[in-house]
Amino acid sequence: MTSFLLLLLSTCLGIDALWRVPISKTPLDRNYYNKDVIAEYLRQKYITNYTFFANYDYQEQLSNYLNAQYYGTIQIGTPPQTFKVLFDTGSSNLWVPCSSCPYTDKACSQHQKFDCAQSSTCTLTYQSLPLRYGTGSLQGYVDYDVVCFGTNQRYCTNSYQGFICATQEPGDTFLNTPFDGILGMAWSSIAKGGIPTPTSQIFSNQMVCPEAVFAFYLNRDLYNNTVGGELTLCGIDSTHYQINGQQIVNGPVTAIVDSGTSLIAGPPALVQEIQQVIGAGQSGVID
Description:
Layout lengths: L1 H15 L2 E7 L9 H12 L9 H10 L4 E7 L4 E8 L5 E4 L8 H4 L13 E11 L2 E10 L1 E3 L11 E8 L12 E4 L13 H6 L10 E5 L10 E5 L34 H11 L9
Parallel strand pairs: 3-9, 4-8
Antiparallel strand pairs: 1-2, 1-11, 2-3, 2-7, 4-9, 5-6, 6-8, 10-11
């Protein structure tokens, strides 16, 4: 009994030690749920050197498709400037709008902007760096400053964390989005400009983060619950899931878990099995 109580206590303490970042979700507008658009989106995001021929209708549809994203809060600088960002495990760069973007840039003007001059720890550079996503592009300059997850100063990088201060957000892709920028959480090896991710810097500090892992809990019940879920850093809250041991795929399979999209892509037979397990129809809608 004593051993059981000690184990239970240590488990509870481990869960309480996690840093939790609440995340919000904006529902998908299914009027723009177009299979051809989704297929093109996947090709652009995951196929290296894929050639994209843009047209206005396609960009407009993808812009609306972005309404299925989960986002949360980070802070940059000293004193901290607060931003809502999309936590994206499918990319590896952090960017937020820049105070120097022109007023004619509609996407930039509608969101919170970072001002390096207002931060005592910011290092301004003039290193230009473009970013391209499957659904849009942007241009900006690399700045260095402290980046913190949530509004707590515990899980922060040092002041040498690089990020892109976006001065150009052309088109409608980021227009009217509920988030200001994107925080890439994939491997630093695929980051543009060779800039390490904020998570990689936090994970390197074992005194603060003994377990180099992050996890997402995404709430399905959006309409009855305003909380979209949470991002946990340096650990996993096992109370959010249960596994019955059902095996879907035989043998080793390489897969990508991409928090920046609501899509599941793969061999049709395997995808259909996954849909059956999670209770989704052929349209991808959870019943």
